[in-house]
Amino acid sequence: NRGLICVSPDGFGGDGLYAGIAEHDFWRVWSDVARHFAVRSDRTVITGYSMGGLASFVLPSTYPSVFAAAMPLDGGFDDGCSAAPEGAANLVIADAPDRSANVHWVPMVISDSYTDELSPSVNNPELVRRLVAARDRFTFFSTSAPEHVTTDLLDGFASQVAALPKATDRK
Predict the structure, then answer these.
(1) HSE-CB of 68 using CA atoms within 13 angstroms
(2) Sign of CA dihedral 37, 72, 168, 153
């Protein structure tokens, strides 16, 4: 009745990171949904937590015309095309090329816990600097959940979800 579809790919392949087989899995799921439903890119929001949060950075940065908005939740930053050694890609933002300009027309609601051991907050000032420099539309939430899974377990993203309609408002 709401006219919404929620889809979650399996993220196949080792660490996933939405490259290689994991990205292929995403697009296979996307293709299957598009065969059965009218998928409109101007209404498509990508969101996810942790690895899904990473996808919510990487995929819109790589394919910005496909998404109306993105909401990465405790997912680090866009590490697509990173020069970092394998396994270290999402730890140091300086190793990732600045693709912020790619998401200029993809509003983002970003949430990151500054105590999250898997999504280092030391990268947040550079992330925000890049988004501001690219004149991107974004809302950034910094939370104080005690470790990586707490916010997810407590379903503590009500403020971020409430900000999302504002992010997709193109008026």
Answers:
(1) 14
(2) positive
Query: What are residue 44's phi and psi, to 5 degrees?
Result: -95, 120
Instruction: In whole angstroms, give the CA distance from residue 90 to residue 68.
Output: 24
CB 99 within 8 A of CB 134: no
Q: Which two tokens stand for residue 103?
A: 């998401």
CB atoms within 10 A of CB 102: 18
- Are 146 and 115 in contact by the 8 Å Cβ rule? The answer is yes
φ, ψ for residue 130 (rounded to 5)?
-65, -45
Give yes or no for a contact between 111 and 72, defined as CB atoms under 8 angstroms apart: yes
Helix axes 51-62, 21-36, angle to 10 degrees: 80
Q: Considering the entire predicted model, what is its pTM?
A: 0.86
Q: What is the pLDDT along the chain (171 residues), one digit of tens a residue?
A: 667 889 988 767 666 677 788 888 899 999 999 999 988 898 899 999 888 888 898 899 999 999 999 999 988 777 666 656 655 555 677 777 888 999 999 999 999 887 777 776 778 888 889 999 999 899 999 888 777 777 777 777 888 999 987 656 654
